[in-house]
Amino acid sequence: MTLCHAIYFSKCLTVDPEEVEAILTTSTRNNRRLDLTGALLFDERNFVQILEGPRSTLTTMLQTIMQDARHENLVLTLFDQIPQRSFKGWEMCGTRVTADVQQRFRDIRLPAVLQPDAMTGQEIWDMIVTVVDEGLNVEA
After folding, report:
1. Phi, psi of 89 (to 5 degrees)
2. From CA 75, how far away is CA 91, in angstroms rounded?
3. Helices of type H across 1-140
4. 10, 70, 74, 133: least CB-packed within 10 angstroms?
5. pLDDT in tens, 2-37
6. At 92, is the pLDDT very low, low, confident or very high (cuts 50, 70, 90)?
7. In angstroms, rounded to a whole number, what is the distance separating the alpha carbons of residues 47 and 114?
8. CB 6: neighbour CB atoms within 10 A?
9. Separation in Å, CA 67 to CA 8, 62, 63, 125
């Protein structure tokens, strides 16, 4: 099995907290079944996500995500083979970028505002890893 990870961002077409919570719940259930792990950051304008898992499964999931009407203008910024998972045990971590999260990003010299089209892949990676590693609360 070839293990890969992908980073993408897209424009969010829904900001309804209940709908975002439903996305996270469904993603957790599906990812567990499909052996995918990852994390999602979102605000009122953007989704940014890292997914990892078997290459064929990840490719199929990305095709499904690209057809989801809750977002548009999906940009895949990275798709690469990896030696091991970075989000083992996280079928789906999701965090709204709140004022507290923005302050934490400022503290570690990351952009405070989620502007993925103006960010490097490393900045996106660092944001998401910070959220997961520090256990910043999941908020829909």
Report:
1. 90, -5
2. 22
3. 17-34, 55-66, 99-107, 121-133
4. 133
5. 999 999 999 988 767 778 788 888 888 999 999 999
6. confident
7. 9
8. 22
9. 14, 9, 7, 24
